[in-house]
Amino acid sequence: MPGDIHARLAALPAFPALTGARVRLREPRSDDADAVFALFADPAVMRYWGSAPMRSRMQAEGKLEEMREAFARREALDWIVADRRSGAALGTCTLFRFDARHRRAEVGYALHASRWGQGLATEAVALALDWSLRTLGLHRVEADIDPRNEASRRLLLRLGFRSEGLLRQRFFIGEDATDSELFGLLAQEWRGRDR
Question: Which Gene3D superfamilies does the UniProt entry name for this protein (predicted)?
């Protein structure tokens, strides 16, 4: 059945590992705690997130546990984006908010600031999109970003997403109300693009 996303998620025998030219998407491990803490404690990385930077390594350990539990419940796929050669954790890429009835999900991503501008996040998100559209049979993938985040905006447009609207003052970052820009990508647009 084309729309049975939850059944396809439940049938996964293990956490899906995906390999690209320069990055690998793999399951989160306990030994990723230092890298996850470095990622989510960085104010530059967290600038457009709706939560404050992490303040302790224990928060990273808790996040890794949440990531593993979300997969166990098949509610989200929280990949660690790792360097293909060294295996070092560079960031995260997540598929979440699966909606089986409407065959859609959301994508999110974060990359260590030292690796920005190298196309690694684009490669990681492309791997997740390709896998989810083929394997899960998604019809649509959405992304919701702060419109001031130009790098994220360019990444989504490069991958074929379209901006579908601005939601005014939807989130608070600290005490500041911020807008949210919704992007969408349809399966037929992904299949029809030049790669």
Answer: 3.40.630.30
- Residues of the chain falling short of pLDDT 70: 1-3, 194-195
Residue 176: per-residue pLDDT: 85
How many residues make up the chain in this entry? 195
Rounded Cα distance, 126 and 106, in Å: 13
Domain positions in the chain are 5-192
Beta strands in 27-175 (DSSP E): 76-83, 89-99, 104-111, 140-145, 162-173
* Structural tokens at position 154: 């360019």
* CATH code of the domain made up of 5-192: 3.40.630.30
Give the Cα separation of 131 and 110 in Å (integer): 19
Phi, psi of 33 (to 5 degrees): -60, -45
Q: How far apart are the first and last CA of the chain?
A: 28
pLDDT at site 194? 57
pLDDT digits (tens, 9 = 90+) for 7-23: 999 999 999 999 999 99
Model pTM score: 0.94
Sorted by sequence, the CB contacts under 8 Å of residue 65 that are 6+ apart come out as none
194 C-beta neighbours (distance < 10 Å), count: 4
CA distance 106 to 174: 23
Between CA 54 and CA 60 the distance in angstroms is: 7
